[in-house]
Each structure stands twice: as C-alpha cells, then as structure tokens.
Amino acid sequence: xxxxxxxxxxxxxxxxxxxxxxxxPDLSGIRIGVVGAGLxxxxxxxxxxxxxxxxxxxxxxxxALQEAHxxxxxxxxxxxxxxxxxxxxxxxxxxxxxxxxxSLAECAFVVENITENIEAKLALYRRMKxxxxxxxxxxxxxxxxxxxxxxxxxxxxxxxxxxxxxNPVHMKHTAEMIRGFHTTEASLEYAxxxxxxxxxxxxxxxxxxxxxSNRVLMLTVNEAIFTVQDGxxxxxxxxxxxxxxxxxxxxxxxxxxxIGLDTILYTxxxxxxxxxxxxxxxxxxxxxxxxAGRLGRKSGEGFFKY
Length: 306
Description:
Blueprint: H1 3-16, E1 31-35, H2 39-50, E2 54-58, H3 62-83, E3 95-98, E4 109-112, H4 118-128, E5 137-140, H5 147-151, E6 160-164, E7 174-179, H6 185-196, E8 201-206, H7 213-229, H8 235-245, H9 252-259, H10 261-275, H11 284-291
Parallel strand pairs: 1-2, 1-4, 2-3, 4-5, 5-6, 7-8
Antiparallel strand pairs: 6-7
Helix pairs in contact: 2-3, 7-9, 7-10
C-alpha cells in the first residue's frame, strides 16, 4: 500500500469511525517505555501510541528494531481495516526505537516484555535500577515469572506490578493485572488508569506463578498435546472439538502455535519448578517439536502450517 493509499484509508476510516471511536481519554502527554521489541512489545507499543502516548521502544538488537519498524506499520494497516480506527496509521510516528536503555529515565510508565527467561530478566532489572526515575511505575509483561521476585531488584518494589497482555494486543480490551507482594493500591490504580486511557480494562489477581490465565491455559494446551501424542485425535480434530462443541474462537493447539511452542514449554517448566506438581510436566511431543524448531506461527509451522 502506497503512502497516498494509506492516507486515503485513514481518511475513510476517519469518516466511518467519527462516532464509533473509543471515548476513553487519550494518553497525550504521557511518555511510556517498552522494553523488548518482539511480538508483544510491538503490540503494547502500538496500543499506547494509538491512543496518543509518546512511546520509547527499546531492544538491544538493531535487527529486532528494524523488524519492529516494519511490523508496526503492518499492525497499523490491520487495525484500520478491522477496527476502523482513525489514528492507527499515525501511531508508528509516536514510537521511537532505540537500543539505549537510559531512555527509560524520561518515562512515567514502563512495560517490560523481554523473553520469558528468569536469568535474562534478572540481569535487565539490575541494569534498570539506577535508570528508572523515582515516580515511574513498572509493569512486568510475563506469563508466569514471579512479580515479587523481580520487584525486589528495584529501588521501590511498591511501584512494580504485572500486566499480562494477550496477543494480539491491539485487538484485546482486557488484560490480567498482577499485584506483587509489595505493590501498593496507588500503583495499581495508576496502571489501571493508563490502561483505561488506552481503551482497556484490567482484572486484578495476586502473584503466584502462572497467575490465573496461564496456570489454567498451559494445562489445557499441554493436555491437548498429550492427546495428539497418544494418538487419540489429530490436531485438526482436537481443535475442531473446542471450536464447534465449546464455541471457542480458537482451539488449544492453534493457541499454542500463536503463543509459540517454545514459550509454552518454558512456561510449563517454570510452573513445574514453582509448584513441584507433576501435572505441569511438559508433554514429550512438545519438547520434541521445540527441539526440531517447529515453534508455531513464528517459525511457519507448529501443529499447523502458516
């Protein structure tokens, strides 16, 4: 799509959505930092930028930032087509991409989205400690890692909480918010106000590994993989049962492919270690597929081809 065509689409969306646009107050004047330019980091950055925030998207890898730049424009086009959102094509202009972690010093709200690896997160939090300003509220976007453990590495753990965004972020209107051991009500209220100004609501839960969503979802995806491994059904039929019998928009195996089978495996390993409960043991087929590089959508093939 050319720039002229994009402007035309934006103009049409402006007209079509003048009355339907979300009425929530916008985020103009708020500077938000997002650490990690992967799939979730891009989605979170776009969501906030769409509603007027100035976003700093940080990654240590220049190639990841270049890929994020392309992906953000694609997200914007998708949002215009599906949501008739008039500001979508302008959102990427509000996102500054950088490798400089020091840029976080200017941010009032930060969302951390790096890989689900505890050692990588611990190293990052030690680096962020002297950078974050004393008023900053930090949200950990994680599937299972303890918010309390990470918060303890920062100067003020009371200003740290979790927000588990769901993919694709630009199409979701609810997130799971996690209260750490030290998290204050003021921090929760501030984070909720940021989400509300981006057209989202939060369901607040307490900090135990997996919280609600992944403590339940990972078991469902893993057991679905066991049924394929045991020859009970094909991946197609497993997901068909969930879609057509239960009315789920997506089956558990397609959901696993969307999340990333490597992320599913890592999360199950974290839950198994945290609870010491064999119900969280990963299916051998899952581990085999990850070893083979069949990770789902991100690699082009998982239980289904893309």
